[in-house]
């Protein structure tokens, strides 16, 4: 059964996380944070005009095989959550297809990971 | 496991393909105008010699891009689909083909007295007929004779379609006003009637009550000479319930974009399909538009029929490619039939299904009340899947050297995705191809091309069936081939155009005879250096994360003499950093921000 994690101190109110039960044992979690952008936002990219924008209020689904978490970005495309170190898969559905991104959470107190999501606009 | 669905009735059950409006009238209406190519300023201006390289978007550090496919998934018949492992082809010289360099970035940027902007990628349009070769890119076109001599151009698309500039610049070159944001050109010569058709999509320069209005533009030559007068049309694609458009999901919030319009034609109709994206987010699937061909040619357009696809049983329809036919050999059965193909890969992974579509009774487009039937069938195909980025052969990249640290590796080129490319209907078969992930002989994961020749039978309503009659892969060991366009002549001989690039090849224009010949890949336009455009550098364009925009499509067209004309993007220039610093155009071959070029190949299979 999933549960909703309380927003940590300093987290923007728009954040919310749905967390599956954690595995037993003591695991030092890493505070992962960053920005998610989507693009292209236009069929062709113009020089000196942004071709992407923040993925505002977008659901991010994190999975490492045993734990599944869903968080939603804020209006600036920012996210923040705590994950166990190791390999994770982020899935985001925005355009034609879901984007699947594999990444590694380092064994540190915090880490920044920014993600780029393809809209399928061409 | 073929699935059939007849789509002739408004209000079909939810979850199945549907028609928003059909038969009894038009959705939206045409705005009609006229333009003469000879009246357009083809004087080329100067590109800026200095550019503010600081992007409006702050540096966000490294971003993770999407991973590509490995392993296998289950698709048709529930059996596993693995990454293709094609045997590959060898690469040799031009193979007897001739050709010439087409419109490049310098040409388009300096067109219209320089009132243009730098952009990537080019998106090639090509049509050939009546002794003329017309090639368009974002955002200009040239007219050549068949020997490659330029007869007109570069003609900027904005003054051609909108009688305005893409970007009005002041004396110092700064942009002081923007016009319609046009893109994604396509071109078609109708052998049957001797007329040229060109299309682009457009976004209005300013919002209207918070809505970004979008439109589809169509130009039709009034004679067989593309240098003369053209009819100019546009219709609204915002789909927010205004201007006679349907109120599609999400479109009333900020408007919708009819992305990458694809064109086709049969005996009676002219067809455009788009991928509809609400600006507020989401995807509404493919939109299919049909109208009378002769109506457009005469300046009196008939009804515009708009099919809204909210989703197939398999997933959302996207890039539903309409067919063109060489020599005017159309299918006039079932009251006139237009064919389409689309890919059916919905998850960025692998699949072994494609869809064939028919639109029948197209002769009714010449009436006041068209009565069309749209249906599709699923065919099992060879596996294909989401392609990886393209590694480049190292070479001089002066823009990159200025922006990146010397230790940064040369960026990759985007191969986009595995959507269906240009479709040709010839001798009863539908020909097309897609970019696909593949493992080449050396074990490396590269981009290959999966191609198909599809037999679509039983086009009477509810009877459509589709089978892949011929298929295969094009690949080069340890390298990449991508953005295919297949031209098929009236005798059924097929030639494929594509870009060849990788560790051993600068981005080059290449071709392969699919129905004979020596089985080798031939390089007609050899690349001279790596792609060095602004989208390749994260500091300049964070969205592309070190992978330059390429394509997004090539073009191929057969002519009645049996020869085939091909257009592919390539890099036709190279210069060192020292040369670039002395002359940022490197002798008029590039600008500060981009160096893409195009190559037109002529081959007789």
Number of strands of chain B: 39
Largest interface: A-B, 40 and 55 residues
Helical residues, percent of chain B = under 10%
Question: Helix segment count of chain A?
Answer: 0
Average pLDDT level of chain B: 89
* Broad shape of chain A: elongated
Question: What order do the helices and strands of chain A follow?
Answer: EEEEEEEEEEEE
Radius of gyration of chain B: 23 Å
In quaternary terms, these chains amount to heterodimer
β-sheet strand percentage of chain B: 35-45%
Poorly predicted tracts of residues of chain B: 1-27, 52-70
* 3D shape of chain B: globular
Instruction: Note the beta-strand portion of chain A.
Output: over 45%
Share of helix of chain A, binned:
under 10%
Radius of gyration of chain A: 15 Å
pLDDT under 50 segments of chain A (min length 5)?
Answer: 1-24
Assign the structural class of chain B, choosing from mainly alpha, mainly beta, alpha/beta, alpha+beta, or little secondary structure. Answer: mainly beta
């Amino acid at each position: 059964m999933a549960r909703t994690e309380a927003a940590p101190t300093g987290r923007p109110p728009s954040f919310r996380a749905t967390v599956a039960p954690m595995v037993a044992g003591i695991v030092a979690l890493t505070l992962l944070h960053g920005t998610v952008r989507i693009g292209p936002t236009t069929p062709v990219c113009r020089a000196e005009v942004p071709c992407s924008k923040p993925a505002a209020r977008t659901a991010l689904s994190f999975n490492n095989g045993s734990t599944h978490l869903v968080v939603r970005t804020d209006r600036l495309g920012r996210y923040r959550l705590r994950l166990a170190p190791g390999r994770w898969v982020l899935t985001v559905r925005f355009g034609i297809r879901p984007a699947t991104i594999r990444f590694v959470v380092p064994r540190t107190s915090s880490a920044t990971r920014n993600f780029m999501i393809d809209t399928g606009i061409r | 496991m073929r699935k059939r669905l007849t789509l002739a009735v408004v209000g079909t059950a939810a979850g199945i393909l549907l028609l928003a409006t059909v038969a009894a009238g038009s959705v939206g209406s045409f705005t009609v105008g006229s333009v003469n190519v000879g009246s357009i300023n083809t004087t080329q201006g100067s590109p800026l010699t200095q550019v503010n390289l600081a992007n409006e978007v702050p540096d966000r550090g490294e971003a993770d891009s999407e991973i590509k496919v490995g392993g296998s998934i289950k698709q048709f018949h529930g059996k596993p689909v693995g990454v293709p492992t094609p045997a590959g082809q060898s690469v040799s010289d031009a193979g007897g083909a001739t050709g010439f360099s087409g419109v490049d970035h310098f040409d388009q940027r300096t067109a219209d007295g320089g009132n243009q902007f730098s952009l990537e990628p080019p998106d090639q349009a090509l049509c050939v007929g009546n002794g003329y070769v017309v090639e368009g890119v974002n955002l200009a076109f040239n007219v050549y004779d068949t020997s490659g001599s330029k007869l007109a151009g570069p003609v900027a698309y904005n003054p051609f379609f909108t009688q305005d500039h893409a970007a009005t610049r002041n004396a110092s070159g700064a942009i002081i006003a923007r016009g319609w944001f046009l893109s994604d050109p396509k071109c078609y010569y109708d052998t049957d009637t001797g007329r040229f058709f060109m299309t682009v999509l457009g976004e209005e320069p300013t919002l209207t009550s918070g809505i970004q209005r979008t439109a589809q533009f169509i130009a039709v030559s009034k004679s067989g000479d593309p240098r003369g007068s053209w009819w100019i049309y546009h219709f609204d694609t915002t789909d927010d319930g205004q201007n006679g458009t349907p109120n599609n999901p999400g479109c009333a919030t900020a408007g919708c974009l009819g992305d990458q319009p694809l064109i086709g034609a049969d005996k009676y109709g002219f067809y455009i399909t788009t991928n509809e994206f609400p600006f507020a987010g989401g995807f509404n699937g493919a939109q299919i538009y049909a109208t009378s061909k002769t109506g457009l040619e005469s300046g009196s357009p008939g009804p515009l029929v708009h099919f809204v696809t909210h989703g197939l049983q398999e997933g959302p329809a996207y890039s539903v490619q309409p067919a063109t036919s060489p020599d005017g050999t159309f299918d006039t059965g079932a009251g006139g039939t237009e064919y389409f193909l689309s890919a059916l890969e919905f998850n960025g992974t692998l699949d072994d299904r494609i869809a064939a579509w028919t639109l029948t009774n197209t002769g009714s487009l010449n009436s006041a009340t068209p009565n069309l039937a749209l249906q599709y069938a699923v065919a099992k195909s060879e596996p294909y899947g989401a392609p990886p980025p393209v590694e480049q052969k190292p070479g001089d990249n002066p823009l990159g050297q200025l922006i990146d640290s010397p230790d940064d590796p040369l960026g990759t080129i985007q191969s986009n995705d595995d959507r269906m490319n240009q479709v040709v209907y010839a001798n009863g078969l539908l020909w097309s191809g897609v970019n696909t992930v593949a493992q080449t002989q050396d074990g490396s994961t590269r981009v290959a091309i999966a191609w198909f020749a599809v037999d679509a039978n039983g086009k009477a309503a509810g009877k459509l069936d589709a089978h892949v009659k011929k298929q295969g892969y094009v690949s080069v060991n340890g390298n990449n081939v991508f953005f295919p366009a297949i031209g098929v002549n009236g005798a059924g001989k097929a030639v494929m155009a594509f870009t060849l690039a990788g560790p051993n090849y600068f981005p080059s224009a290449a071709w392969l005879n699919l129905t004979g010949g020596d089985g080798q890949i031939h390089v007609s336009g050899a690349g001279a250096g790596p792609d060095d455009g602004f989208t390749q550098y994260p500091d300049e364009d964070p969205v592309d994360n070190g992978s330059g925009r390429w394509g997004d499509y090539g073009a191929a067209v057969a002519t009645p003499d049996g020869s085939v004309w091909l257009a592919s993007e390539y890099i036709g220039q190279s210069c060192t950093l020292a040369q670039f610093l002395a002359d940022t155009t490197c002798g008029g071959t590039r600008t500060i921000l981009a160096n893409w070029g195009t190559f037109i190949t002529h081959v007789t299979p």
